[in-house]
Design a protein that fits this description.
7% of the residues lie in helices and 49% in strands. Bound molecules: copper (II) ion (CU). The site of copper (II) ion has 5 residues, from strand 10. Copper (II) ion binds next to strand 10. InterPro entries: LpqE-like, Lxx211020-like, PCuAC_sf.
């Protein structure tokens, strides 16, 4: 569930005077459903996040940016098995076709969070901001042991 849309709602509110009807805020194209973050191992400042990305718009949408105030940077990674060795590689500029679902799951595509703040522990929440080119959408993802 999207908990707030930072820029979009603020702009919509600023643009609507008291005498004008409130314009509907732009809607998110990309939704992250069932999102969660794996609690980092003790002493580690990185971890992964998962969920289902869904483009509910009728056109192709790019994942423009990922940010969290609780991590130095967030990127999209893909786990690949090469010669029996599991490696993770950054995936720049993911695009989803109209209506497409993409699963972020262990062993596949995932969110990679680097430089985590100390409070990211089981039972806490991590705020993740997704920029889909249509706005910045903020999610609060539960942090779980698994
Ligand atoms: Cu990774």
């Amino acid at each position: 569930m999207i908990v707030k849309a930072i820029a979009a709602v603020a702009l919509a509110l600023a643009a609507s005077g008291a005498a004008h009807a409130l314009r509907p805020a732009p809607a998110a194209c990309l939704l992250l459903e069932q999102g969660w973050v794996r609690a980092p191992m003790a002493g580690r400042a990185m971890t992964a996040g998962y969920g289902q990305l869904h483009n509910r718009c009728a056109h192709t949408v790019s994942l423009v940016g990922l940010h969290s105030a609780q991590a130095r940077h967030v990127e999209l990674h893909r786990t690949e098995i090469t010669d029996g060795i599991s490696r993770m590689r950054p995936v720049p500029g993911l695009q989803l076709a109209a209506g497409q679902h993409v699963s972020l799951e262990p062993g596949g595509l995932h969110l990679m969070l680097h430089g985590l703040q100390p409070g990211v522990v089981p039972g806490s929440q991590l705020e993740l901001e997704i920029d889909d080119g249509n706005g910045h959408w903020v999610y609060r993802l539960p942090v779980r042991a698994r």
